[in-house]
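Action item from last week, closing it out:
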Amino acid sequence: MAVKLSRRVVRVDTGSPDEEGCLLFADDRLVAVLVQLGFEHNSGLAGKWFLEHAFGSLEDRKQPVFEDLDAAERWVVSRLA
């Protein structure tokens, strides 16, 4: 059965200028909190999406950085499959 993903754009109180966030839901369950990295980061990271926190089977000590939200969603689907 295919996983139904949905997004909700939010502001995240990270304690840093990186506040633009996105909640990812799989079948109406929160599975990941992503934060867009701001321009105070080096030019290679600015604008990319950082996995701030993952839940359930997505929990991992590594916190990947994604080019965009579509890439983050592909990672979620691959981990849930």
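Closing note: Residues 12 and 19 are 5 Å apart (CA to CA).
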